[in-house]
Specification:
Layout (H helix, E strand, L loop, with lengths): L7 E5 L2 E5 L9 H8 L18 H21 L3 H12 L12 E5 L11 E7 L5 E6 L8 H17 L7
Antiparallel strand pairs: 1-2, 3-5, 4-5
Helix pairs in contact: 2-3, 2-4, 3-4
Length: 168
């Protein structure tokens, strides 16, 4: 197998995450390599294969985070707060296989932190217990280039509104 980079290993709790970057011709050898390093068979594992991002895509994402950091400083908020606000304003809803928006209903007594997703609150539903309804949003790594460009344009507009020069 021809590796494009050295394998990266990271301990995550009791598990190990392994990242291998290979060229297209060597892809079929990945499965043999996984078997050969003796990964225990009594656990489930996930192998993610996706096209490598171009540097311009990575640079664009870095620019978004730099601008979010500047906005957070200017607005006296955390980067996480600003990121979530930008996703809510300029992000894209997640959809199921049928193209329908993914929506969660949560009882009012359940903390929103239990959702552990990017979300947009959009409705209160009258019922005995009271529920809140949330549309689930894509994270930036799930967005395609067109969606991310619209997200970044929104961040740039926000920066200009508060006097931040978005040219980096």
């Amino acid at each position: 197998m021809k590796l494009m980079d050295k394998p990266r290993w990271e301990f995550v709790g009791n598990d190990i995450e392994i990242t291998l970057t290979v060229d297209r011709e060597s892809m079929h050898e990945v499965c043999d390599t996984i078997d050969s390093i003796g990964i225990p068979k009594n656990k489930d594992y996930e192998i993610i294969v996706r096209p490598k991002r171009h540097e311009s895509s990575i640079d664009t994402r870095k620019k978004a985070w730099i601008l979010i950091d500047e906005l957070a400083h200017k607005l006296r908020k955390s980067k996480k707060e600003v990121h979530e606000e930008m996703l809510e304003r300029y992000g894209v809803m997640k959809r199921d296989d049928k193209g329908e928006p993914i929506i969660y209903m949560i009882r009012n007594d359940v903390p929103i932190s239990e959702l552990k997703k990017h979300y947009k609150h959009f409705a209160e539903i009258d019922s005995k217990d009271g529920y809140r309804t949330f549309k689930i949003l894509k994270g930036t790594t799930e967005m395609d280039n067109v969606e991310f460009a619209a997200y970044l344009d929104g961040i740039i507009d926000e920066c200009m509104e508060v006097g931040i020069d978005p040219k980096i």
